[in-house]
Amino acid sequence: MKFESKLKEFIDTTNLLLKEERTTQGNKIPELVKEYFQARAIESLENGNFKIITTAPGLQTYNGLSKIFRQDAVCYTSRNGEKELLPDQNGFIELYFNRGFNRKGDDSISELIFDFTPRLNFNNKGNIDESGTYSSSSQHGKLVIPYSESCSGTFMSQNEKFLTVTENVTRKGIKFISLNTELLGEGVLTSFFKHMGYEGLEKLL
Length: 205
Prior knowledge:
Order of helices and strands: HHEEHEEEEEEEEH
Number of helices: 4
Distance between the termini: 11 Å
Radius of gyration: 17 Å
Helix content: 10-25%
Shape: globular
Number of domains: 1
Largest sheet: 10 strands, antiparallel
Strand order of the largest sheet: 1-2-3-4-10-9-8-7-6-5
Number of strands: 10
């Protein structure tokens, strides 16, 4: 999946910018997120964190929906010659870039959080056992979400890399995923999307 490798490339470039003088950061990072992910908006948050809003092509179709959530967030430009999907076929993602310190002690983008609108549906895959734990397995990995107030669980890829998932309140799909940026390039993000059967973010590239 090209999206994961593109995301890693963006994180690596952004981390280099964080080492430069702060006067240059504000100009370059917004340009980068538009170039890489066709970001519709970028917002600065506390502690040097930031988030972007970008289109999730085909996410509504994936969920069996057809309505426009945000006109400004559900349009994109095809870069590979394919015809763009219509706004009522798309959703959007709020993608949070959180800063911290890596294993070398460098200030860097250390965590990513994806917030899906609409949710990333289970689409009748998997099972819920007597304890209320949801689980599903595929050639790409295993998703397990115990029944709890936090609605949080994990996805483990076949190479035993993990990311955290959070259900929406109806227990019918994924609202959030989060992962350590040092895992980018290991395939866990790609495996997760393939496991869920949604690969629409490739259309942004």
